[in-house]
Design a protein that fits this description.
By secondary structure, this protein is an alpha/beta fold. 44% of the residues lie in helices and 11% in strands.
Length: 381
């Protein structure tokens, strides 16, 4: 990266303005929505979150995913082949500690999540391209001319769709995610063609064993990760790596996480994936030690590590000095020019999500910016 300081960004979802959140929750509960009124609310919310990101001082910004009910299941209105309800899912760690799961069930973001299953051939809906174009146009209008290179837009990976939306049609898992990849390819390409950086959301890489395959060992999970990334790379084959970044995580929730697959077990295929940017969890208590994975590993040319130096699941406001120290750990092992600072995960993963109070989310982002400035002063002095 060509800069003389640590740049800041976030992982995609931001708190939605209250009016939009209420309207989206009402719609998910079966209410009737006025399409024009909803479109106005989304446009206003997009402009608002862009302005707030700039006011906070973030360098690389987006639309906050405010128009999507979730980062993953939004595709059910853009792809044909879904219906009914998917299989019930539970994180493996919450089986061991059900009290933690009971607390999570009270969150609106989880109780309103809708997950239809794949019941037929996957294809793009008649309105899919229009929906992508609408998102692009709203973000372009909000950031203004000449700002595309400081702007990103998110899209979900094929395997993450498969993780949440059960396959009941294709003969095997690989056939399902290949079909999803072909159906999602036009969305990926449209975002890059608009001049934005495309962020692919891939929590499947860290969550598959704890959410889908509780019985799988590490070797099998590594093989699954390789398959998922091979399929994703095929969908991204015509896009330049420097315009791509990939977010992986182990689940955006405050839980035990004691069954999370270690980052070290999957770091090689993850680093070999096509996107130049890699966003990883680096601040929560289960994964903040994993900066050391890079201590004896050469970073591939062109790669940028984007560690989460803010925890998105708690209401502590990280001290800027803590943020700076977390950034410096990564700069020490991969080089200051190969680091950008972000959050562990999003602050509005599902509409109504309340793990972190919205006002505190913005305060935490402010601390992110302050911490990056402290680290930059020390790293470039």
């Amino acid at each position: 990266m060509d800069h003389n300081r640590i740049l800041t960004t976030h992982t995609g979802s931001l708190p939605r303005p209250p009016a939009l959140e209420r309207a989206m929750l009402d719609l998910l509960e079966g209410g009737n929505a006025d399409d024009a009124a909803m479109a106005d609310l989304v446009a206003e919310a997009t402009a608002e979150v862009v302005a707030l990101q700039r006011k906070t001082g973030l360098d690389v910004i987006n639309d906050g995913e405010v128009g999507k009910e979730s980062y993953s299941t939004y595709v059910s209105s853009r792809l044909e082949g879904f219906g009914g309800e998917s299989d019930y899912l539970v994180m493996r760690d919450l089986i061991d500690y059900p009290e933690a799961g009971a607390a999570m069930a009270l969150d609106d973001g989880f109780t309103h999540l809708r997950r239809p299953a794949c019941v037929g051939p996957i294809s793009r809906s008649a309105t899919a391209d229009d929906q992508v174009a609408r998102d692009i146009d709203l973000l372009r209008a909000a950031v203004g001319p000449g700002a595309a290179d400081q702007t990103f837009m998110t899209a979900v990976s094929p395997a993450t769709i498969a993780m949440f939306m059960t396959n009941r049609h294709y003969p095997d898992h690989e056939s399902y995610i290949v079909a999803l990849a072909e159906a999602m390819r036009p969305e990926y390409e449209a975002i890059v063609a608009a001049g934005f950086t495309l962020q692919i959301d891939c929590p499947d890489l860290g969550c598959w064993g704890s959410l889908v395959r509780h019985d799988a060992g590490v070797d099998e999970l590594v093989s699954i990760v390789r398959l998922h990334l091979d399929v994703l790379d095929h969908a991204l084959a015509d896009l330049p790596p420097e315009r791509l970044r990939m977010h992986m995580c182990w689940g955006n929730y405050e839980g035990p996480h004691h069954h999370d697959i270690p980052f070290e077990a999957i770091v090689e295929p993850v680093l070999a994936a096509r996107p130049a940017g890699l966003l990883i969890e680096a601040s929560n208590p289960r994964h903040q030690h994993e900066w050391a994975v890079f201590a004896d590993r050469k970073l591939p040319d062109g790669k940028v590590i984007i560690p989460g130096v803010i925890d998105s699941t708690v209401n502590y406001i990280e001290h800027p000095e803590v943020v700076a120290q977390r950034i410096e750990r990564y700069a020490t092992v991969v080089g200051r020019d190969n680091v950008m600072a972000t959050t562990d995960c999003g602050f509005g993963t599902f509409v109504g999500m309340r793990e972190c109070i919205p006002a505190l989310a913005w305060a935490k982002l402010d601390s992110l910016v302050q911490g990056a400035a402290i680290a930059s002063h020390r790293l470039w002095r």
